[in-house]
Amino acid sequence: MSIVNLPEVNLSRRGLLKAGVALGGGLMVGFGFMPSSVVAAESSPFQPSAFVSIDNTGRITLTMAKIEMGQGTYTSLPMLIAEELEVDLDQVQLRHAPPNARLYGGPRMDQFTGGSLTIRTLWQPMREIGAAARMILIDAAAQRWGVAAGECQARRGEVIHPASGRRLRYGQLADAAARLPLPTAITLKPASEFRLIGQPQKRLDTPGKVDGSALFGIDTVLPGMLFAMVRACPELGGTVAAVDEQRALRLPGVRAVIKIANAVAVVADNTWYAGQGLAALDITWAPGPNAGLTTANLLGTMQAALNRPGVLARNDGDALKVIAADPQRVEAAYYNPMLAHAPMEPINCTVHIEAARARIWVGTQVPARARDAAARILGLPVEQVSLQGYLLGGAFGRRLETDYVEQAVMIGRQVNAPLKITWSREEDISQGIFRGLYAHSVQASLGPDGFPVAMSHKIAGPSNLARWAPGALKDGLDGNSAEGSTQFSYDIPHYRSEFIKEDGPVVTGFWRGVGATRNLVVLESFIDELAARLGQDPLAYRLAMLGKNARAHEVLRRVGELAGWGKPLPAGSGRGIALLNAWDTYMAQVVELTVLPGGTINVQRVICVVDCGVVVNPDTVVAQMQGGINFGLSAALFGDITLKNGKVQQSNFHDYPVLRMNQAPQILVDIVASTAAPGGVGEAGTAGVGGAFVNAVHAATGRRFYTLPIRLSAKV
What we know:
Blueprint: E1 3-4, H1 19-22, E2 26-29, E3 52-55, E4 60-64, H2 73-85, E5 92-96, H3 101-104, H4 118-145, E6 153-155, E7 158-161, E8 166-169, H5 170-178, H6 206-211, E9 226-232, E10 239-244, H7 246-249, E11 254-259, E12 263-268, H8 271-280, E13 282-286, H9 295-305, E14 311-316, H10 319-324, E15 330-336, E16 348-353, E17 358-362, H11 367-378, E18 385-389, H12 403-412, E19 419-422, H13 425-430, E20 438-446, E21 452-461, H14 464-468, E22 494-501, H15 514-533, H16 538-543, H17 550-563, E23 573-582, E24 585-595, E25 601-611, H18 618-637, E26 643-644, E27 647-648, E28 666-671, H19 684-701
């Protein structure tokens, strides 16, 4: 697979079919994001966008509206288009979509990658785009041959007339096809005829990542480029008071020291020189309003917020009334710590700022938003700011933010050359936009049979959507923060889920799995505790509460079977189980672990059964479960960002570890065959493993834990 960078195409619907000529001759097909069919009317409110281009040499270029950050987007989306276009994956090259939310942003006009939304939102539109191109090419061939289009077929980049044996390659038809009208209706292939969808496909981005030809933002190299490293005020919200730069400026290769409101950058001939210069600076910081902030302060704020009424996310029956009338009600309090993203590729951005234009080279999940933020700072029209996207070396929600692009622009406009800004690992972790700290209160009233007849879940913490996309709130509810709790699958007659918005002084953001990672570890741990109080088997207890939910019941049943649930384990070992329903995906996991005499937790095996509806690429599903589970286990074992006097205490992988290869468990992934609409898989593995892990630790030790990470003493 090659990834090409083509000029941004700005199309009106009338100009859509002329676009191929502008790109050197041929056919370009694109449509706005429609829920079911193509709208070709001139008055359509949907703006067209170009996704497929075929030139007269037969070169097929697919424009990727989403970003590849390791989740397989640059394989699954081409599969959808290629399936209907009737080409093989080795016949296409891919193009990063330029920043243009109107063309590539979908119904909400927000061009972003995240939320396990890619396949869920593009399953139908990308297939329609491929099918429309196929139909136009068939029409072009039929007209050339003087036969009915229904007599022709498309196969592997050719149109064939079986009756006469004639065939034409797509490239031979591209110019003629570009002059034909759009089809008025789209005919999609039935699932029984799929050649690509549902079959394991090798990742198209793997060869380039192996041989080094794949480019990430940190790989940007430009003629005359300078390099910078940056240090922001260690107290969150603080600013720069003074800088003594003399020692740094005397070092080899150091060109300049640049100050902005809250950070200092050293510009040099390479990144090493810049880092040496940064270390030589004597900086005086003005701490700001968070100078005394601690993790305990934040936790107290969130716990106090639980006493306030919130916004209802779900309200079945009258849970509060039933619980209040029960003197034997069960109650538990939990909290989720702050977490960093810590992607392997640290934050970086390259800019070249000139008087009348700006150019940006960066890995981002939000290309249009990043470009627009830069334009605002520079006071330039967005048309005079270009942004070149790249593959992302990990993101997990961190690159949904534009803070590092804004910082790069503020520094870069003071340098008369292209400038690459790179954050050190310490800067990347300590200056992150973290997952926030959340507090939870859970209550239940049990019936005579020991099953909950009423349950209440209150969540208090920051609202990411209120800051990032306030228009996405519905009646004041941040549905993202309540995810997992809202879809809680068990048959409980009275169930209430409530979110209390308490933003606190720390800017927080999205972290892989978002609300479900926080809420499901709480709820699934609580369900396990209810089963244990009654002396019931955790799997049987859950299955008995799922009579109305066949998909949830099946993933639980299968995971128990595959895990050998109930078979004895050695002393000091335990199994834990948890259920997930989020992103239109059902999943159950079993974690098997052993607690060693010194208190070290050794996770040996994770069994994951996932029903994510129709599967595009099974290999992607397996890889996402494996990666997500290991990411979630890193948080469960080690993840904790703490504050002292307004400063983040963690700085690198020595004190903010991630799971090492020798610590990673064996992971078995079983995919349930399904005809349901595609669900999301990018975050499910992470969100589902935490509860199973907590429950496995309880099974091994007999101890209940109400926050992560779990750190056991040597007395265990």
